[in-house]
Amino acid sequence: MADSRGIREAWQNIPSPGDVAVGLERFTGNRIERILAIVAAIGSAALGAQALLAAVTNISVVDAPRVAMMLLVFGPLLWMIVACISARAIRPACGSFAVAYVVALVLWPVIVDRTTREPASQPWIFFLVNIAVVAALLAFRPRLQLMWALGLPFVYGYVRLVEGGFSQEFWITTAFDVSFTLILGAVIVSLGWMFRQVAAGVDDARGKAVATYAAAAAASAAEEERVAMSALMHDSVLAALIAAERATSEREHDLAVVMAREALTRLANTEASIAQEGNDEPISRAQIVAELRRTLSEQGVDAVVEERGVAAELPGRVARAMVLAARQAIGNALDHAGGRGLHVIAESAADDRLTLTVVDAGPGFDPDAIGEDRLGIRASIVARMAAVAGTSDIRTDAGGTVVELGWEPA
């Protein structure tokens, strides 16, 4: 069976444009960035371990410059791996390694001993060329990413030729290394751009779909409310007016009054799930308080609902009207006072007289300045309470607003 709450509740659960912008705009993009970070961490750990092993096997205990070189490279690399795994400070960590690697590469000819290096033997720093490109991909803007991908291989090639004294043997092996790292770096950057563009397209399509659905739901909800209001006006309000106009006897007058009261209640309760008065089964004050607490919880407000006096029971239609009016008062306090100082007092007496008081510490408002088309107070509070022979008193000043709803048995 279809949900009787209909599309109105679905509409209330649709994110607003601001919520969509915050929560959904970068959903796929964030997932792609996380995947790139994890892949970068795995690749960096594998190649970093290979480079560390090669560096340790070719280092002397007393060779302080080489130890300093290793600390300069592997320290930021370790930070980068940890940051990518933990998803914290990824850009600073990757940026630090990308810059530190360039510095180490420039200092390499000064520190390394050229006489102990063979042309076919690659130095340990070679294994990290493309890791620096990956770091730039995660840390920098596209222009800098391209600079790292295209520039680092040539910087490495120049440093390698300096190390070999620009001999012919070094030219051959270096050309191969540079071409390999250049192609691989271009592929890495291209894949990163492609994945990010696809993710941006998916996020954009999702945002447009949500906005389109929100607009359609709003139009459907407005049409549903218009149809419900038209039926209500035709079936209840006009019938009550016709009965009142044709009434001639005392009994007919009484019946017209009852019809008018029911019509007013239905009109005031049009935003409820079922726009009708409902039965008059007694409802206790405890149930009313529980409903108000649930309302505050749904709004995410940590406000107190205070109970005073003895227990009481009210007719069902009266209890429903008071709860709906109190909900409207709570909503007004949240919208216009930010919920400052919000608390609710439910006070009842032994004769089943009940008073609900909604208090806030907002800036207050001028009741006379409220436009005629604003029905939050006139219809949802004043008219609703009048429809069940209740009272409503609204007091407001610069220190806050007090909405007092009262009902007592006739």
UniProtKB/TrEMBL annotation:
Keyword field contains ATP-binding: yes
One protein family per Pfam: HATPase_c
GO MF term list: ATP binding
Gene3D superfamilies: Histidine kinase-like ATPase, C-terminal domain (3.30.565.10)
Residues in Histidine kinase/HSP90-like ATPase domain copies: 322-405
Keyword tags: ATP-binding, Kinase, Membrane, Nucleotide-binding, Transferase, Transmembrane, Transmembrane helix, Two-component regulatory system
Alphabetized InterPro entries for the sequence: HATPase_C_sf, HATPase_dom, Sensor_HK_TwoCompSys
Transmembrane segments: 35-55, 67-86, 93-111, 123-140, 170-195
PANTHER family registered for this protein in UniProt: NITRATE/NITRITE SENSOR PROTEIN NARX-RELATED, OXYGEN SENSOR HISTIDINE KINASE NREB
Name assigned to this protein: ATP-binding protein
Organism the protein comes from: Microbacterium bandirmense
